[in-house]
Specification:
Layout: H1 3-9, E1 12-16, H2 21-33, E2 38-42, H3 48-58, E3 63-67, H4 72-80, E4 86-88, H5 93-101, E5 106-110, H6 113-121, E6 126-129, H7 137-147, E7 152-155, H8 164-168, E8 176-178, H9 184-188, H10 192-210
Parallel strand pairs: 1-2, 1-8, 2-3, 4-5, 5-6, 6-7
Bound molecules: 3-phosphoglyceric acid.
């Protein structure tokens, strides 16, 4: 499957952060019920690998990638536990190398022209733009896109229902990621319907912004 193409038609990537595989599975199912197809299971808890494997095994309707991957070792572990793509907060040659060697997409975080240029020279055609709102938001992204004509960006960090359409309207934006779709308080309360609702709202915004609702 071509993940980049899938993202272009399903341009919202929720973060799934859990320290219990059962919760990761319920969260992913709730997101999928709202129409989202791709999620990033983040390596921010001790049981992230188990969570990733559980989502990969038990939620076939969701394409699971690994997020917050910081090292080549973590990238290998993620790919051994069902990840179909890798996302990093920063740009690390080791992480990119593992993804290339194993033939999966990698979206490393960048926020400066030098980092985007480095990614370009590593042969990447898509990077995360992180933390998008602090790194200058839409004006900064447009400035980067005007120089790196072929590069696609995945803004993450500060994306919300209020600015999602504006980010997605930029032609160089492949997709947007974020944690607003999986609020910790809703998960703690077991309110998975709220997560489905947030996902459905994001899907509707994305379809309108991309003209996919016609
Ligand atoms: C990420 O890892 O992509 C960010 O933490 C997401 O940022 P957000 O919490 O502002 O959506």
């Amino acid at each position: 499957m071509n993940i980049t193409e899938l993202l272009s038609n399903n341009p919202v990537v929720p973060l799934v952060q859990a320290d219990d595989p059962a919760i990761a599975v319920k969260t992913s199912r709730a997101l999928a019920a709202g129409g989202l197809k791709v999620a990033e299971v983040v390596f921010r808890t001790d049981r992230a690998l188990e969570c990733l494997q559980a989502v990969a095994d038990e939620v076939p309707e969701m394409i699971a990638g690994a997020g917050t991957v910081l090292s080549a070792e973590q990238a290998n572990a993620a790919l051994d536990h069902g990840a179909q793509f890798i996302v990093s907060p920063g740009l690390d040659d080791g992480v990119v190398g593992v993804a290339k060697e194993r033939g999966v997409p990698v979206y490393p975080g960048t926020m400066t022209p030098s980092e985007v240029q480095h990614a370009f020279n590593l042969g990447l055609d898509t990077v995360k733009f992180f933390p998008a709102s602090i790194a200058g938001g839409i004006p900064a992204l447009k400035a980067l896109a005007s120089v790196f004509r072929t590069m696609k960006f995945m803004p993450t960090g500060g994306v919300s229902p209020g600015n999602l359409a504006d980010f997605l309207a930029i032609p160089a934006v492949l997709a947007c990621g974020g944690s607003w779709l999986t609020p910790a308080d809703k998960i703690a309360a077991g309110d998975y319907d709220a997560i489905t609702q947030l996902a459905a709202e994001a899907v509707a915004i994305a379809k309108r912004a991309r003209g996919l609702d016609k």
